[in-house]
């Protein structure tokens, strides 16, 4: 007998042992192509992005946020949205959900013209980040989103997601009041959003904060089925926070294949929770996801090769030897 | 207003929000100087090791496993135990606990001669690893430990820890039966061990496995106060597993400053849970540890400089800019 060179389990999968109080199934909302690649310094060619998204869907991911129809000046990495989205038409036709971020009515119009029918808007829980990211107050940004969400619904969009960023901490303001997050989230739902994604944009949250915020949404009448969690792994807390959210009834988890979303070896390492690290835990807990871990890890390894640096995902490195 | 360059909270500390069902205080059992450095390819000079341990204690860690009195042939990285341990006499005199690993009676004699009074033995839950690591069956290794534990107690040792490795998975055997782990652990306690450390040596465990093993020890009459958990972050699961153990009443957690314990950029990345990532979670949860995070992160950054590569701890990188 000799051990596998990686030291991992022979089949490359975790042992399955369920735990009480967790959902039977989790939907992974893959954000790598948008939230991940928008932070890459180097431009990624359209054909590589399209191939990446096709491979993600091939691994079993049913929801992949494809790009953002933001003005190219603000996010040059995603300036190719008009070229990319049509490439994905066969995927969309096969039933893969490919939501796109739209910052305003002009972005929505561009996306609608290309046939997109699932959208996301990006709000902030804090005034500082609203000003920095949108050059508006929180109230002004919500007013800007109102017609976007309404027009999307009128155009036949069945789902419009509302991101709430800086839910747990803000680099300018420090701690963020739970009441502020709930107020912005509830307002987005009132405006017509069908789901909220609660973002720990700077990755500082710990499980007690997560539990407290989810409890506060519950008191405000928002069921956990309408909430997704979106953690960054800046301080290594993303998976413990996710476990806490699952215990509170959340069944939609945002993650980024390979942990894309920030250089892991530099200051401001703000990578998203890696989809593979999440999958290792979910599969170990016997929670269904429909995603094949080995195919996803191979995809992330391929993408790491395209980007020229190793994946920050520990599971990708353990499984693929990077 | 401008954000801190790191994007983190202005004071470098997490917001504190407690969560039900967790202990008020956790003892961190720091394993970096032993479990971490024994995996370093390059030899670390004795003076650097001594300085490392002094700095760890200076940051508030009260238990630091200092070295191993194993035969130098097997672990050349720790062949300097005889030189290192006397350097630490002032620390020990000041009340810092400095347990040392002893593989057999000969190692114990060497450690006792230098004045060590707190020890650990290292057993395996699986036959394959017992054979690979100790060249013995599990039963033979336990028989070897019996006189070590007895002699240590007779010499005045108040604490003898029993490590149980491969508690959740084994690279040769795959899944490990809970009953096997409990049998080895209970036997170590019968032989006189005062504490067990349950090791996920290859880092594959997920929270359901952790909960199941701790429940099984409970059914065997072992209180969680006699158990420590020892997670490796190979698949990114260590902190989620730790949170699960805390919910099951465990209050002693093994961790390695800076995540020492395996090259993070190579195959078989088997680093320990980083003490700083653990501290971020514990402090965020309002759990007392007595450890100052900023001083510890600075220590790990210094040690990373000595080793010539960045720390794999996400919290260290976020706080120190590596």
From TrEMBL, chains A, B:
PROSITE patterns: PYR_CT. InterPro entries: Aldolase_TIM, HMGL, PYR_CT. Coiled coil: none annotated. One of its GO terms (biological process) is L-leucine catabolic process. One of its GO terms (molecular function) is hydroxymethylglutaryl-CoA lyase activity. Keywords: Lyase, Metal-binding. Residues 26-297 form the Pyruvate carboxyltransferase domain. It comes from the Bacteria. PANTHER family: HYDROXYMETHYLGLUTARYL-COA LYASE (PTHR42738:SF7). Belongs to the HMG-CoA lyase family. This is Hydroxymethylglutaryl-CoA lyase. It comes from Streptomyces aidingensis.
């Amino acid at each position: 007998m000799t051990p596998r060179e990686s030291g991992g389990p022979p089949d490359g999968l975790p042992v399955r042992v369920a735990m009480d109080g967790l959902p039977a199934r989790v939907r992974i909302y893959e954000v790598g192509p948008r939230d991940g690649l928008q932070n890459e310094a180097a431009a990624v060619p359209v054909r590589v992005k399209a191939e990446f998204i096709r491979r993600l869907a091939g691994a079993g991911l049913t929801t992949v946020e494809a790009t953002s129809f933001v003005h190219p000046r603000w996010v040059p990495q995603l300036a190719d949205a008009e070229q990319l989205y049509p490439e994905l038409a066969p995927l969309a036709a096969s039933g893969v959900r490919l939501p796109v971020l739209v910052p305003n009515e002009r972005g929505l119009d561009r996306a609608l013209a290309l046939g997109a029918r699932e959208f996301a808007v990006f709000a902030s829980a804090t005034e500082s980040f609203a000003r920095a990211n949108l050059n508006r107050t929180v109230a002004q940004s919500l007013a800007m989103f109102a017609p976007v969400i309404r027009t999307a619904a009128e155009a036949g969009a069945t789902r419009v997601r509302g991101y709430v960023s800086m839910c747990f901490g803000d680099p300018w303001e420090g701690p963020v009041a739970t009441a502020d997050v709930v107020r912005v989230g509830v307002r987005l739902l009132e405006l017509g959003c069908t789901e909220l994604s609660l973002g720990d944009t700077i990755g500082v949250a710990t499980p007690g904060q997560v539990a407290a915020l989810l409890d506060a949404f519950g008191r405000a009448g928002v069921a956990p089925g309408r909430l997704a969690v979106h953690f960054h792994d800046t301080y290594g807390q993303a998976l413990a926070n996710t476990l806490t959210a699952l215990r509170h009834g959340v069944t939609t988890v945002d993650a980024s294949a390979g942990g894309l979303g920030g250089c892991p070896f530099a200051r401001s390492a703000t990578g998203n929770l890696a989809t593979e690290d999440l999958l290792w835990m979910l599969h170990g807990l016997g929670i269904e996801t429909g995603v094949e871990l080995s195919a996803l890890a191979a995809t992330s390894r391929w993408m790491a090769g395209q980007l020229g640096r190793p994946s920050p995902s520990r599971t990708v490195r353990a499984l693929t030897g990077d």
